[in-house]
Design brief:
Blueprint: H1 24-58, H2 62-82, H3 90-109
Helix pairs in contact: 1-2, 1-3, 2-3
Length: about 110
């Protein structure tokens, strides 16, 4: 006998049934994973911004310097805006604060006004 959702020998489809509903524990676990993903995004974005700022600081070409400075500033603004929407551990909050402070300093050196 075919399983639900499979075609039988006579060419008819057996009925399929809905998947069981998520439990509260599964829902909470999903929320935890989603938050971790958001934190990881912020960490990656601030690292990317520091890379852009470093390239801008070393660039001799005005256009390249401006483009990378603007990219670093956009990432800085994004991280600052999104930090309030994420539950950060003390360790993650301190790490982001240190990197944002460094990034802000580098951006100020590049001429950004805060």
């Amino acid at each position: 006998m075919p399983r639900a959702g499979q075609q039988s020998k006579d060419g008819l489809w057996e009925p399929s049934y809905a998947a069981p509903k998520s439990t509260l524990d599964q829902f909470l676990a999903f929320g935890t994973r989603l938050n971790r993903t958001k934190v990881d995004f912020l960490k990656i974005d601030v690292e990317t911004a520091l890379t852009f700022a470093g390239i801008a600081m070393q660039a001799e070409d005005r256009v390249k310097k401006a483009r990378n400075r603007q990219s670093a500033r956009k990432a800085y603004d994004t991280v600052v805006r999104l930090m309030d929407r994420v539950d950060l551990s003390d360790e993650d909050a301190q790490l982001l604060a240190r990197k944002l402070k460094r990034l802000r300093s580098e951006l100020a050196t590049l001429g950004e006004v805060f």
